[in-house]
Amino acid sequence: MSVDHHLLEKYWAGLCTPAERKAVEQWMSEGIPEESYELRSPETEPVMKDQLWQRITQARQEENEIQQPTKIVRMPIWFSGIAIAAILILMIGLGLYVLKNQSSSTPLIAYQELILPHGKKASITLSDGTKVYLNAGSRLKYPKKFSETERRIFLDGEAFFEVAKNPEKPFYVQTKQTTTRVLGTRFNIQSWKGYADRLNVEEGRVQFTAAGCADTLILHANMQGLFDGHQLVQTAVNSANKIAWTKGIMVFNDTKLSEVTAELERWFAVQIHLSDPGLANYRLKARFDNNPSLIGVLQGISFALNIKYKIKDKEVTLFR
């Protein structure tokens, strides 16, 4: 796996897969590369050194924890000295590179984060004029000002984008598994932990790729791209239903009850329990308009699926 500045950005944003994280840390342990990469981080040299030492120490602790207690591996003194020297050289190199960039005319890109708890939604306008609608329980990492060559942000959760047109500077949305590339369009991305990444296009033309997958999807309006961790799948959808949440509308179209409850937990900041595991495979087809209340949604689900519910504080239980 090659290490470029995009992969380094994911590493420092905490969005790398285990394989990508291993590749970056192996690359760092080998010393200073022949080619310089901009780390795109606002941290000063001391902060970066501290973070690097912490990552190295943590990695060593993890390795020690998984070693068998009956096996003792003795590292030669000369090898330890070389390893420490390599780490120090790498840290010095990173520090010099930061100082070099700080003194140049091109400043490092400073990132900001917008983190939403369950029960809260928000919208934000980026420096290029792009509008982002962030769903509850989501995290968005974006620069105060984009670079001269591209516009790249990082998403964990769900967001709807109205990307400002700029043919000279493509716009990228990076999740832990996928990359979406556009020049200017409207689309919705879902990237929830434990679920497939979904890209739904409302307007324009969008490129969709995934880590470890050779395929590339080119999607247009009313098309969906899905990555299940192994392959990319393209289907036709009604994009209006996929972005209805931005207007305070909940739409479920033959959706598993397990996915419905996950959405309700984010929307209303509650915990939902299924008394019978078999309920998870029940499927719901329903629409709730005008920023519905929790009780209103539960009553609709209860009627549609012929089940019951009870509420205690912030906990909901569904049962037959």
UniProtKB/TrEMBL annotation:
Residues 250-318 form the Protein FecR C-terminal domain. Gene3D superfamilies: 2.60.120.1440, 3.55.50.30. InterPro entries: FecR, FecR_C, Ferrdict_sens_TM. The chain crosses the membrane at residues 77-99. GO terms for molecular function: sigma factor antagonist activity. Coiled coil: none annotated. Signal peptide: none annotated. This is Ferric-dicitrate binding protein FerR (Iron transport regulator).
